[in-house]
Each structure stands twice: as structure tokens, then as C-alpha cells.
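User: I'm writing a short methods note and want a consistent example. For Zinc metalloproteinase, I'll paste the sequence; you return only the C-alpha cells, no commentary, since I'll be parsing the reply automatically.
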Amino acid sequence: ARQDFLRYQRVHPKVFSHGRRRRDVLSLKNTTHQDVLQVSFKAFGQPYTLDLRMKKDLLPLNYFEKHHENSSHVIDHPMKRTNKHCYYHGTVRGQKNSWVAVSTCNGLSGVVFDGTELHYIHPDLPEHLFFKASDMKAKTWRCGFNDSQDLWGNAHKRAKRSVVIQPPYKSNARSRYVELLIVNDNKEFIKMKRNKEAVFERSKEIANIVNALYAPLNIFIALVGVIVWTEHDEIVMSSDGDATLTKFLQYRRERLAREHPNDNAQLITDIVLDSSVVGKALKGPICTYEYSGGVNKDHHEVVGVVATTVAHELGHNFGMEHDDKDTKCHCPEKRCIMASSTSNPPSPSQWSSCSKQYLQSSFEQGMDFCLWNLPEDIMGPVCGNGFLEDGEQCDCGPMEFCKNPCCDAATCKFKPHAACAIGACCDVSTCQVVKAATLCRDTVTECDLPEYCDGVSEFCPVDVFVQDGTECGGGKAYCFGKQCRSHDDQCQLLWGSSGRMADQRCFERNDDGEVNANCGYNRLNKTYKKCNKEDVMCGTLHCVHLNERLEFGIESAAVQSKFYIDENDKRYTCRSAIVDLGLFTADVGQSPNGAKCGTNKACMNQKCVPLEKIYGVKCPYDCYNNGVCNSRGNCHCMVGYAPPYCNYPGPGGSSDSGPASDPSAGYSFMVSMYIIFLCIVPLAVITSFSIYYFRRHLKTWWMTKARKAAIKSRAQQVGLDRRGGRPLSKFNIDAEAIKALNISAPVTQPMVPQQPLAPSAPPMPPSQHQKPHRSVSRERGSFRNVDISGPVLQSSSNSHVAPTRPAPARPAPARPAPGRPTGVQRAPSCPSQVGVLDYCSRGPILQNFAIGYGHHLGSGA
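Assistant:
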């Protein structure tokens, strides 16, 4: 390795772990590898301290190692014995944007990016060599990719697919996971001195570095297995890169895909390929069954250089082209990973702007179909791997990468002030769980249901959706697995917005079992399945469209068909396609699950079945028509109704999805509903009924009351008018009342001095049946003991007071003849006991009235 660089430094790395003293890195070979390490050394005049953490997600628990032995295959699963290994990621202490990917299996080997420049560290036991990538001597290493080998054709814009997953920390809902398989040919085995363990270790080192290179693209690499052809090559190897690639892809289809499922396979060989080619791959087929793979020449002793080549060829499989094809590509450094050649010093730590655009385009074409699933049993429980596992409150990844203010990266526990640290329902600015009814996962399809935070957990509830078999798509489809896809929808997915379902006559041909009309294609034995008569609408999808190019998947990797049906002077066009999305992925060229194929029937795995076979657990009482049934057989209630049955007031949502509105407001809402429906509404009904039933009585009562009020008002007004606005007495006695009694008041005569008044008739003695009345004596010139305690009632002119006993007839006293008055004599002083009627204050008229009335009472006693 030394001869390939202009300069290098010899270094002696020291290891420090778990409070133990520093020791030589070589001592790690015979010890159990620790989860966390610190490695320090000095090179090029400056100190380096590497903070490392074991990359647990590199090797899943089902990782295997396979080789030949006695003309047969031997398979080992080392991760099932222990989840420890010797592959680490980390950073350079104190260096921003730095990253490290190294192995400690046999010394220290890998790459170190200090934030500005890439370095390689390589064992040269008992020492280590430290290189700068910029000091590598110029060599002509060329990628064998030919731009004419573009499987995509021209890029087509289409709507992005929405897929939701549960990603690890530092990733998001768009993270992808590549299950990588590495195969080493017999020449590579010989190069490594026939040491299969050394080949296994080198392959894992390569995968570890590739993982680090793809991390900025939000892509995780999991090495599912390594195969070494220790006795012979299992394909015909050739210096012709194209021929070798073709043979290897065929080997993957026929052997690897069946025996060891993977998303991508890379062959590493020591055969010298023609034209200084060090790698070969096709563009764009990352998830296909036919073409997802590449060939790589092990062209350098430094493992980091070879890892860059593997990352480059894998980039072609992701749909990336060479950076120098487009002069507008921006690379942060002099050269990026997708440079067409390495004749100049490489800079393999960065991706250009064009590479990112190509990657996004391929994902929009649907070629990330196989990359959403996390590898099974990705790792054993360990703090710092970014996945929340048993015994952990949080896991924000390695300490050097963790920026979470709520999580202690060293212990994977909450910090003292924190109630949460990760999860869609955690506010990391406050480290507190957000309030209930906060939307944490929105719907992505018509058949999806939203999820809400419950105010207690930091995690969004599990993703649930509308129950399979629920009608959707305007009656053209039924929900199936959160999707609502009719025949028309699937045609638009394949051919763009102009696509639509062809005539039913096209589907009737699906019982032929041919390439253009069938009920499924078996890629392993290359056979087509015939449809039963009742299933023809669920077989090959036949479309008509205006677009001549396939817009989903790889056009050159798809099998397109077209035929016509002439009937009744009319021609029907039938177009179809078989789309390669991998061996274990459903062909989108078939009628989709859930598409309507008859009355109350839907397609399911190319069968037309009754809805009863699609339904899951039914919800009780059909949620009282106040909600929908979800995929777990529970009611998802509308806002205003409470789970589990949506028959009482409540916040909405379900027991699976959380409350759709604030539950604390539910009690007030419920009380309000009770008041309205149990008090206000019944009272309003009773009142309305009473008014209607007693309307005549109420009308009479109202009119009578109004009449009395009017009479009283008129009487008061008349009194005010006649008295010039003077108010009535407290007994409401006025001149009108006096006239109503029809009693004439005596006329005052002029008084002659010393002339006695005419004597009055002597009073009658009281009857034995009557109570004695006070005598009313009248002396000359004065009135004494006038009894007017009997009240004078106000009445109309037609009213009179009937006596309780008829009074004896008695002639009225003689009245003196009126004369011309010369003056009005002042009334004599009022006696001290006058009765309740203050007649003195009422003037002469009331006084004379009292006198006359007193005589009347006396005569009637």
C-alpha cells in the first residue's frame, strides 16, 4: 500500500475503554470487543482522537457466512452466537462534520474523514500506516458503466408515493434499508492467501465503509451475508466486464434470490477487467429481480479505496449517473463518489448534487419498493444504535452524533428534567409530551385513518387504517391494506394521468395464460398462470392511454404487450405490462387487490372473492353509524362521539388511534349535551304544548288583564286632568268618584251672627240587633264626633252599595233655601279624632260631603 501514496505516516494507535488504561490496539484481537472505544494517535504533526461506537445495525442476527468444503456448501451464522463484532463508526474529536468507519478485528483498518479531508488507516503490523487520500498516486481506474446502458430511458415526472415507516433515530419517514449480499470469487480467495476468515472480514469492512458513505443520503446498509467461492467459481468469470456482469446477474436470479433473499448483490473479484475497468453495473434496477447487482475489482490493498468503488457501483443501481456527464453538477470537493474515473486523487466522502437528483428521480419512479422494510432482527439490544429497545428510555445514537437535549446518550435514559426524548409526540424543545389530540400521523390514502397523541406516551399510536372491504374510490374499489386502488387507478400508476381501464373484452382473454393475458408470472420457472373464468377481472391489467412510455418501474426491464380485439365493426385496444420489482414483490402489472370485480366482490391475489373473505373482525353495532371500523375491528368515531362504540358524546378517534379532540373538553361538552337534551329541550317542548293547548284561556286572561289595566290607566288620567295634574289621595277618591255616588253635597249659606243652625232630627236609638254607633251631635256653629270610619268606595256611575239591612224610611232633613252668599264662612276646626279620612285637608267639598254622609249613616243606623 505504501507505494501507491506520495507520503504516509507511521502511527501507533492506543485504545482507551471503560476507564481502563491506554493499551495497544493490537490487544483488542484476543478480547471481547467493547461497545464504546476511544483510539488516539498522532499523525502529520497533529493529534487524532477517534470516538468510536460499535455499528450494531451493520450485521443482522440472521447474517450468514457461506463457503465451499468438500464440494458442498457450509453455512455459518456467527451473530447467533454473539451480537458482538469489531466494526465501528464514530467521529474525530473536536472536528466538525467528521466521520470514521473502521474495523478493530486485526489492528485498525478503515477510513477517517476529519471534516476537510479523507484519510486511510491501514495495518502494517506491528505498526499502522496513515494516508491522505489526496496523496494517492494517479492511476487510471475507470468505471465500466456505459451511459447507453440506461435501463430507465428518459426520466418521467410523477406524483410521489407516500409511505410511512418507523425509522431509527437520525432518520425519518423517507429512510431506506438495503439488504446487501457480497460474493467473493475464487481469485479473491487466493489473493487473501486462501484465508476465508480474512475474506469474510474484508467484506464486512467494505460494507461498514459503504454504510458510512450512504448515511448522508438517509440510506442504511445491512450486510445479510458473505459468500466465498473457496473451491471454484460458480459462474464463468471473464475479463469482459459486461459478460461477467451478465453471468453474475443470472446467478443472482437463479441461486441467490431463491436461497438468500436480498435487495442487492455485489461481486468482488481479483480478475483484471479489460480497459482498466474496476466496476460494472446497470443504472436503476435496485429493487428488480433481474438486474440488481454489480461487479467490483479488488484493485487496492487499502480497503477504503475498494469500498468507494462498491459504493460507486451501488450508486448506479440506485439510478445515479457519472458526475462529469452534467457540467452543472456541484461537488463539495474536487471529486465526488460518482466520478467516472479515479485518474486524479479521489474524494469519496461526498455526493454531488446530480447524484442526489438522480436518486430522488429513481425513488419517484417507484424503485424503492423493496427498501422500506427494516431487516429482520437487525440487531441485539444495545445503547447507542438509534433504536429504542428493552431497558432503554431513549436512544439517540452514538454520543458523538446525539444532539437530543432530552436524552443521555451514554445511558440511554432521560435527562433529569425530561419526560420524553424521542417520538412524534415529544416536544424536544421542552422535553415534554405534547397535549392529547395532537395529530402525529396524517392520512395518506382514502383508506387510511389519522393517529393522535394521547397526552401520555411520547410515541404515536400504531398505524391503523380502514377495515378491508370498505367501499372506496367512488364505488370502483374496496379498501385493502390501507390502499384504495381501482383498475383505473392502477392504469394511471403505470401509464400516467391518461391511463384508464380497457374494455372488459380485454380481461376476458386472461384465461389464455399467455404473456399478454394471464393471472400471474412465475419468474423462477418462467411460466404464466391461466385465470379461471370468474377471476379474469383480477388478472393482467389491461389499459388504454395516450402515453407510449411506461412511467413506473424500469421500462427496459418490463415486458410490455399490446393487442386488439375487433368486434361489431369496432376495435378495442388492450395494453399491458409485466413490471419487475423483485422476486417477492407483487407485480403492479396485475389487477390490484381491492379492485371491484363483481357485485360485492373484490380482487385478492388474482382471485375474485366475496367481500366476506376480505372483511376482518367486524365492529359491534356498526359503530352506530357515527364512525368507521378500523383494521383492528374497533370503531374510529367521528369528533363528538366516544369510543368504543360511538354511541355516547366524546372526543372521537378510537382506542387504537388516540382521541381526535381534547378529552378534557369532553366533560364540559357532555354536561352541555345533558343540559340541552334533558332540561332545555323538554322544557321548551312542554312550554310549547301548554301554550298551544291553553291558548284560548291564555288569550282570555290576557285580554281581561289588559282591559283592567286600561280602565285603571284611564281613571287615573281623568283624575289628573280634572285636578290639573294633582295626584289622587291614597284612597283614589276624587270628584269623579263622588259624582258616581250620586250624593249632593250641602251648600254653604252665609252665616248670620248669633243665628243658630237649624236643629237636626234627633238620632234614632240603636236597634238591639245592631251595634251602637257613635252619636253624631251637632251643636251650633260646630261639628263634633263625626264618624266616617266607613270607607267610601270609588265606583262608576251605575254602581251602588247595597246595605246589609234595609234602613227605615225617614224624611230627609229640610234644607235651607239658597241665598246670595256674601262670603264663605271658614269651616269649624276639625275634631282631634276624625277617622281615617283626612277630610280637613280636602277642602269644603269633602267637609260638606262628610257632614251629609254622616247624617246619612246616622239615619241608617
